[in-house]
């Protein structure tokens, strides 16, 4: 059995997942590019990267992403949450085109069409697969 | 670095990101499914109660370790490779590997609609790299 109706707060939660994932990745990329290549023999430099402003800001945003992502996974399937929140890629491309006046190639427009169609497929379906014995209360998980 | 060597290096880095991300996603989704609706728990026990419910789950802890390994794999890859290749390739492949893993490890009802969604988003993200 499955159910599909999401409340307004659950939809807002999915929107937060979408925005924070895109923004966090962008901040990380900006920070790592300014640091330059990290040698495989000096992986400790990755820990140093965490303390830099761009990477640090990215991590803060990604913590917000993680909290909202966990909440979404507690009432929706993984195979629902991931495609549904991928609309963030489309938002970033559209912002780049209309706000930053970046060139968006025909391939990218085609990519936007594919992602939008994929989001449409999953959004019209059920959000959660009920298991035989759904957990109703907090409990320890016996094993990993 | 030769073209073949570079391609192998990129493939290994992308593979590591996808592997750890998929393992992390499945373990965390499994833990949250076991714990139950966090909104409901928060309504009863508040944010500390919801946080305790999540943090006391060993499966969640394993999932976080896998996500951390994926995160550092991504940082390492971003410092070497091209963001326009690494980012979309890892992200798009993860949609498909997660769909497979969710079906077999989480028992999710991955019907034709969800397969189509995973494949369409995978193709779309890959096209964004062009």
From TrEMBL, chain B:
Membrane topology summary: Multi-pass membrane protein
Superkingdom, taxonomy of origin: Bacteria
Membrane-traversing stretches: 12-32, 60-79, 85-106
Keyword set, alphabetical order: Cell membrane, Membrane, Transmembrane, Transmembrane helix
Major localization listed first in the record, in broad terms: membrane
Subcellular location: Cell membrane
GO MF assignments: transmembrane transporter activity
Matches recorded under InterPro entries: EmrE-like, Small_drug/metabolite_transptr
GO cellular component annotations of the record: plasma membrane
Protein name: EamA domain-containing protein
Organism of this sequence: Acidobacterium capsulatum
Source lineage: Bacteria, Pseudomonadati, Acidobacteriota, Terriglobia, Terriglobales
């Amino acid at each position: 059995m499955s159910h599909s109706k999401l409340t307004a707060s659950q939809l807002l939660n999915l929107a937060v997942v979408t925005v924070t994932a895109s923004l966090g990745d962008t901040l990380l990329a900006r920070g790592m590019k300014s640091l330059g290549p990290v040698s495989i023999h000096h992986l400790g430099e990755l820990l140093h990267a965490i303390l830099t402003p761009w990477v640090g800001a990215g991590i803060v945003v990604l913590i917000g992403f993680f909290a909202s992502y966990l909440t979404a996974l507690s009432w929706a399937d993984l195979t629902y949450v991931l495609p549904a929140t991928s609309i963030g890629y489309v938002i970033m491309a559209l912002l780049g085109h209309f706000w930053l006046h970046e060139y968006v190639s025909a391939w990218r427009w085609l990519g936007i069409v594919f992602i939008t169609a994929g989001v449409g497929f999953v959004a019209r379906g059920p959000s959660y697969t009920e298991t035989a014995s759904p957990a109703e209360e907090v409990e320890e998980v016996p094993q990993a | 670095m030769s073209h073949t060597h570079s391609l192998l290096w990129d493939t290994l880095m992308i593979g590591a990101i996808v592997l750890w991300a998929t393992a992390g996603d499945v373990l965390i989704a499994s833990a949250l499914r076991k714990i139950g609706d966090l909104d409901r728990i928060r309504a009863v026990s508040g944010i500390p109660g919801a946080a305790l419910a999540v943090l006391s789950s060993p499966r969640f802890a394993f999932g976080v370790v896998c996500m951390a390994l994926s995160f550092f794999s991504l940082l390492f890859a971003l410092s070497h490779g091209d963001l326009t290749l690494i980012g979309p390739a890892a992200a798009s492949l993860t949609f498909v590997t997660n769909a497979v893993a969710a079906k077999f490890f989480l028992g999710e009802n991955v019907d034709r609609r969800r397969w189509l969604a995973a494949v369409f988003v995978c193709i779309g993200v890959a096209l964004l790299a062009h």
